[in-house]
Write a structure and sequence with these properties.
Keywords: Hydrolase. One of its GO terms (molecular function) is 3-hydroxyisobutyryl-CoA hydrolase activity. This is 3-hydroxyisobutyryl-CoA hydrolase. This protein is of the alpha/beta class. The chain has a single domain, classed as Alpha-Beta Complex (2-enoyl-CoA Hydratase, Chain A, domain 1), CATH 3.90.226.10. The chain is built from 16 helices and eight strands. Helix 6 runs antiparallel to helix 13. The longest helix is centred in the N-terminal third of the chain and has 16 residues. The radius of gyration is 20 Å and the shape is globular. It starts with a strand and ends in a 29-residue tail after the last helix.
Length: 380
């Protein structure tokens, strides 16, 4: 269906392999459609008892959506970019509600859209090479692909912290905070795939149990980096639970003279100098609102938010076009954001991202989840 997705049935398992390693397996629209087509075909195929997602190449499963494509389309004045998000968010929901075990091998770089095709999995396996993040605020976006839901469902205020900062973390942290289920050595992933492909399974539960057993019995990878969040959980909660971003930054500034001075200084600098002021504030609100929403409702809301990001509702500037230009296209790393700093962002600037009708006639996801499978997972 596309040169960048290989789908095959081996034994009783359907394998989806992303084959665009030179671009870190970044998702194109055709790749999203190919994944959706395979999952649709296998849903009622009695030959297939489970699905395995993996990425080709040593760099990672998937670095996210094809942001160069976003820049090209919006810069050209095209509005069909929203078709991309319609199909991507529908795929995210399909994965989260899939009736057969869907196992994500989250090796290497797994960010943005890569998280969207992994977090709804029945089993999420990471390795010593896993580098995970939702880094969208760096390019003038927000954590979409259901990111509001799986970040909101984390303990305390980790969701606000991870969403606004886009900080990168590894396998130990992913398992400890609930964004992964098991750590397996990268070198053992082919053996896991062979086990699943060659087994004589009676049903999907047997497939899932075998994968879980393999992960439990696997030796921890050599060189596994220790987690960094555990000793910071209380301080993260105390600051990222404050009322708004200016209050958070003010508290971080005070903390720079105290016990966690290094972390506080680094976090404040990151938020002030490396992230879109507007989208940091929007993300904070998004994660907090998502705690009261189902995954389907959150995806509907994200679709409306994305339309505003790309100025397709005529009310906001294309913040992401500038962010992608600065970091990926021209690579001058000097984005000209709409706001000079976080303190300049007004409540009304944030509120307009959330005032659309999730069930309105212009939202193509309005029927999502209205009938059919119950959401199995929106995070760990």
């Amino acid at each position: 269906m596309t040169e960048f997705v290989r789908t095959e049935i081996r034994g009783r398992i359907g394998f989806i392999t992303l084959t665009r390693p030179k671009a870190l397996n970044a998702l194109s629209h055709d790749m999203i459609r190919a994944m959706a087509s395979a999952l649709g075909a296998w849903r009622d195929d009695p030959r297939v008892l489970g699905v395995v997602l993996q990425g080709e190449g040593v760099k990672g499963l998937c670095a996210g959506g094809d942001i160069r494509y976003f820049h090209e389309v919006v810069s050209a004045g095209r509005t069909d970019i929203m078709d991309f998000f319609t199909d991507e968010y529908t795929l995210n929901y399909t994965i989260a509600t899939y009736p057969k075990p869907y196992i994500a091998l989250m090796d290497g770089v797994v960010m943005g859209g890569g998280m969207g095709i992994s977090q709804g999995a029945a089993l999420r396996i990471v390795t010593e090479a896993t580098r995970m993040a939702m880094p969208e605020t760096a390019i003038g976006l927000f954590p979409d692909v259901g990111g509001g839901s799986f970040l909101a469902n984390l303990a305390g205020h980790l969701g606000e912290y991870l969403g606004t900062t886009g900080i990168v973390f590894g396998a130990v942290d992913a398992c400890e905070i609930g964004l992964a289920d098991a750590v397996v050595p990268r070198a053992s992933l082919p053996a896991l795939c062979e086990l699943l492909a060659n087994g004589e399974w009676q049903d999907g539960d047997a497939v899932l149990n075998a994968a879980r057993m393999f992960a439990r019995e696997a030796l921890l990878p050599a060189g596994l980096a220790p987690g960094k969040f555990a000793p910071l959980r209380d301080v993260i909660d105390s600051y990222f639970g404050l009322s708004d971003m200016p209050a958070i930054l003010k508290a971080l500034k005070r903390e720079a003279r105290c016990e966690y001075s290094g972390w506080a200084e680094e976090t404040e600098h990151l938020l002030r100098s490396k992230r879109s002021p507007l989208m940091v504030c929007v993300t904070l609100e998004q994660v907090r609102r998502a705690r009261k929403l189902s995954l389907a409702d959150e995806l509907r809301e994200e679709w409306l938010m994305m339309r505003s990001v790309f100025n397709l509702d005529g009310r906001t500037g294309a913040e992401s076009v500038e962010g992608i230009r600065a970091l990926v296209v021209d690579k001058d790393h000097a984005p000209r954001w709409q706001h000079a700093d976080i303190e300049s962002v007004k409540p009304a600037d944030v509120a307009r991202f959330f005032d659309g009708d999730r069930f309105g006639a212009d939202n193509p996801l309005r029927q999502l989840g209205q009938s059919g499978p119950v959401e199995r997972r929106s995070c760990g």
